[in-house]
Amino acid sequence: ADRLDVDDPIFGFYVRTTTPTAGVKSPGDKSVGGKDSLASPAASASNPSASVTEGMLQGFVTVTTFTTWQKTFRFDSMHDSACAFDDAGLAQDMLNGRRQYDRHGELAEELQATVRCGDPWNEGIVWPRIAEISLLGALGCGKPLLELVIERLESLPAKKTRNYDYVVLQATDNSVPFYESMGFVRVGCITENENFVKEEEASAVDEDKIQPTPELASDDSDSSDVAEAEQAASESAAKVEDAKAGQQESPNEVVSLEVFVYRTK
Fold this sequence. Notes:
Blueprint: H1 3-6, E1 10-16, E2 25-30, E3 36-38, H2 42-46, E4 57-68, E5 74-75, H3 88-95, H4 106-113, E6 117-119, E7 124-138, H5 142-155, E8 166-169, H6 176-181, E9 185-192, H7 199-203, H8 223-247, E10 254-263
Parallel strand pairs: 7-8
Antiparallel strand pairs: 1-4, 2-3, 4-7, 5-9, 6-7, 8-10, 9-10
């Protein structure tokens, strides 16, 4: 599903060109959040002969409340699997201090300690103290867009449904230096590889595959009837145990996730 379809709440901004003069504002051109659009003639700057048409989309950003759909998801920069899938170059950059990351795990602990609530089978597990930049694309105007988002988040009045202290996002490899220059820090996230079976479904035993336990014969029954009843009871109990064992989950694999976090003022 597209993020625009599932993110709730959602707000954002967009930038459109006005004239080839940098910094010009068009009072009639409004963003999603109601702000004037900034002119960003990146195309003409890189190619003076390129024509810039008024109203061309130069950038956009959407923001929502951070939500997960895994019960086992948690922020943990110190877990062995948090950086287990880094390539050699990234691992060396982190070791040499060329990457901004949660070195001592303190930021991850703060994030994990924030309030969260919800059902992963319905609205998801919502983290009302954490905002997420779900989509950002820009041609030469990424910095003012991101600054505008952070300014907006810091100025929002606190509500029961959201009071943002942090901003998180996932970054492509090429965009990591940009986000780090804006104050974002890499934080480790892990989750178990869940089999996505509801608890009531996982705990239920298939009654069709289980034979009812017969009552033992009374004292006046002969020994052969008693032996047959005991054998049937033993087989029935074994089937019950096999059915329960089939419901047990195998050890879950831990999956890591790379997330960048900004602490709002």
